[in-house]
Design goal:
The protein is mainly alpha-helical. The chain has seven helices and three strands, in the order H-H-E-H-H-E-E-H-H-H. A hairpin with a 7-residue loop joins strand 2 and strand 3. The longest helix is centred in the middle third of the chain and has 24 residues. The chain starts with 5 loop residues before the first helix and ends in a 16-residue tail after the last helix.
């Protein structure tokens, strides 16, 4: 097997990741739904999550994170509870409605891509799976905020893919109720 230039590989990964993110945007539809899904994926990954840690994972300011989490709570998608270690702080977890919203949207995205992956040989699917594992390991090693990820179900269409569209908090944070 021939070697591949590392810089070219990284460049292709960035391009493919961006294309995949745009494809998911087209499937999801509007920006507020995409922002909510990204936020729910971050909550799922770190739950229970405090606002500061959420802001790091979502790549937003803490005030923007506070506003977005409040809207998710108002929509019934996350639950706010007092932190057991610091009664002054709140932590957030997904509600059943939040988990359902993520599952529904991931199912839509999976339906869009599964036919392609079904057309691959078992060896090709194993190669893709191996590559995804390597990228996930890199992200855990290089990005401490992602270090507590247990490679759970969010990888189907979780924040790894959608975080390529990181917000500085200036974008829409409207959330549709569950």
């Amino acid at each position: 097997m021939d070697d591949v230039n590392s810089a070219e590989l990284v460049s292709r990964l960035v391009v493919v990741s961006s294309r995949l993110t745009r494809a998911f945007r087209r499937v999801i539809g509007n920006e507020s739904s995409l922002a909510a899904l990204r936020a729910l994926a971050v909550v799922e990954q770190y739950q229970p999550v405090r606002v500061g840690h959420f802001a790091q994972g979502y790549l937003s300011s803490q005030p923007a994170a506070t506003k977005l989490l409040a809207r998710l709570e108002e929509a019934g998608l996350v639950l706010r509870e007092a932190s057991p270690t610091d009664g002054r702080a709140s932590q957030f977890s997904l509600t059943d409605a939040g988990r359902e919203r993520l599952a529904e949207n991931r199912s839509i995205m999976i339906d869009q891509m599964e036919p392609y992956f079904e057309s691959l040989s078992p060896e090709e699917r194993l190669s893709v799976d191996h590559a995804l594992g390597l990228v996930s390991a890199f992200l855990k090693d290089r990005h401490p905020v992602d270090g507590i990820d247990d490679a759970g179900p969010q990888n189907a269409v979780g924040d790894t893919v959608l975080d390529g569209t990181a917000s500085d908090g200036a974008g829409s944070t409207d959330v549709e109720p569950a």
